[in-house]
Amino acid sequence: MKTMNPPRMTLPQSETHISSLYLPDQEENSCFHMIIFWGSHSGLGCFLGFLWLQVMPDIHLVEETWIWELETFYGTLDDYVLLEKLCLEKYKFSHGDVIAFRSPTNHHEKQIKRIIALPGDWITAPYSFDALRIPEGHCWVEGDNSASSLDSRSFGPVPLGLVCGRATHIVWPPQRIGKIERIIHHDRLSFG
Amino acid sequence: MGALSKLSQWKTLAREVAERTAIVVNFLCILHVYGPSMLPTLNLTGDVLLVEKMTVRMGKVGPGDVVLVRSPENPRKTVSKRILGMEGDRVTFLIDPKNSDIYHSVVIQQDFYCKKWLKKKTYPCYRMNIPKASTTPSPLPKQSERSIEDAESQIHVDRNEHILPQICVPKGHVWIQGDNIYASHDSRNFGPVPYGLIQGKAFFRVWPLNGFGPLGQREW
C-alpha cells in the first residue's frame, strides 16, 4: 500500500492511517503533520537534554599538585575524582567538603580545595591574630597540604558562584578508590 | 505489529534530537530579564534576550558588553550588567550619585602601576579593601614616589576636593556596572568580580518587538 496514493474520498486502512501521521516518508503527508512531528520530537529532546545536563555527575581529572595538597604523602599519578553537581541546585555546602571551583585569578583553571568556612562565619586570619568575617555568598577554601597550596590565604574568600561541583569519591587509581572524608577544623573557626 | 518498529524509529530519532539539543544548549539560550538596574537599555518590566556562551568561554568578552553574571553575594541569583573595566584598569568611581554633582559615575584608566601590580603573585581580598568615600584622605604621595603598593586601593581627590574611591581591578576580574547608576547594586558596592562568574553575553533583544535588534554599546 505504500507505493499507491489512496484516493481522498475513501477511508484509508487503519495501518496506513497511523503511519501517514507519524512517518515523514509518506507522500500524502501534509506540511502540518511534518511540523507537528518535528515539534513534538524536539520538545521531547529539549526536555531530556535539559534534564541530562542538570543531573549528570562528572569524572574530573585532578592534576598532580592536588595530591600533594590533599594528602601528606607524595603521589606520582593523577587522581580522578567523582564530582557531583546536585549541590549546585541550592548551593548548600558543609564545612569540610572538598569542592572544585574555577580559580578567581584565571577562569580557565579549576582548583580543588576544602571548604573551611561558609558565609557568615568568622575565621582567624592567616599569620595574624585578626578575625575575618566571610562575606555573604563566599567561602574560605584551603588545601590540606598548607605549605604548598595556593588558596584563600592568597586570593581571599571565593564566591560560591565559581564552584563547579563537590568531590565525593576518588575513582582512580585503584589503590586509592574510596570516599573523600570531611575534615572540620574547629580551631580556626567560630560561629556567629 | 507496526507499532514496535515505529517505537524503535522514535527511539533513534529522540536520541539524535537529545544529543543535538544538548550541544546547542551549551552555546545559546533565551532568557527573560527584568529589573531597574539596566535602564534605559533594558526595560523595567522585562525583556527577552538571546544570550550566548561561547564568547565567554573563549575569554573574548570586553568592556561595553552586556553580560549575565552570577551575583557574588547570592550564587542563586543571576544579574545582567555591563562590563566597564578589565583586569589591570584603574577605576575611580562614585558610590552615591544622588548626593553628588559629579557628572561621570566612573572613570576607567589604564595605569602603569596597576599593570605592574597585576604581576604580583598574591592579591589582597578584593572585597575587604574597598575604601569608603567618606574617610578623609591622607596626603597623596608625589608622582615620583608612587610605588606598586599604591595601586591596590586608595582615595582620589580631584580638583574640586571631591573624594572618590579608586581601585585597581585584579587579575582575572572585571568591573561590572548597571547602566542605571542610581538603582544598581554592582561593582561599586561589592568590588570587581571574577571572570568565572560571567555566565553569558546578551547580544540580541527578542521581545518587546519595538526593541527588537542587537544590544550595542551604551546609548548615552
Essential attributes:
heterodimer, A: 192 residues, alpha+beta, 8-stranded antiparallel sheet, 3-stranded antiparallel sheet, 4 helices, 11 strands, 23% helix, B: 220 residues, 4-stranded antiparallel sheet, 18% helix, 30% strand
- Major sheet description of chain B: 8 strands, antiparallel
Give a count of the beta strands of chain A, DSSP E runs of length 2 or more.
Answer: 11
Mean pLDDT of chain A: 72
Strand content of chain A: 25-35%
Task: Provide a descriptive summary of the structure in words.
- The complex is a heterodimer of chains A (192) and B (220).
- Chain A is α+β, with helices and mostly antiparallel strands and 192 residues long.
- Chain A is elongated.
- Chain A is 23% helix and 29% strand.
- The longest helix of chain A is centred in the N-terminal third of the chain and has 25 residues, at 31-55.
- In chain A, the strands form two sheets. In chain A, strands 1, 2, 3, 4, 7, 8, 9 and 10 form an eight-stranded antiparallel β-sheet that branches. A three-stranded antiparallel β-sheet of chain A has the order 6-5-11, with no helix packed on it.
- Chain A starts with 13 loop residues before the first helix and ends with a strand.
- Chain A has helices at 14-22, 31-55, 64-70, 152-155, and strands at 58-62, 79-84, 98-103, 106-117, 122-124, 131-133, 138-142, 158-159, 163-172, 178-179, 189-190.
- Chain B has helices at residues 2-25, 54-57, 112-118, 187-190; strands at 28-33, 47-52, 66-70, 78-85, 89-93, 106-110, 153-157, 163-168, 173-177, 193-194, 198-207, 213-214.
- In chain B, strands 1, 2, 3, 4, 9, 10, 11 and 12 form an eight-stranded antiparallel β-sheet that branches. In chain B, strands 6-5-8-7 form a four-stranded antiparallel β-sheet.
- In chain B, a hairpin with a 7-residue loop joins strand 3 (66-70) and strand 4.
- The longest helix of chain B has 24 residues, at 2-25.
- Chain B is elongated, with a radius of gyration of 22 Å.
- The termini of chain B are far apart.
- The model of chain B is unreliable at 124-151 (pLDDT under 50).
- The A-B interface holds A 15, 18-19, 22-23, 41-42, 44-46, 48-50, 52-53, 90-91, 101-108, 132, 135-138, 154-157, 159-163 and B 2, 6, 9-10, 13-14, 16-22, 25, 59, 70-76, 121-128, 170-173, 193-197.
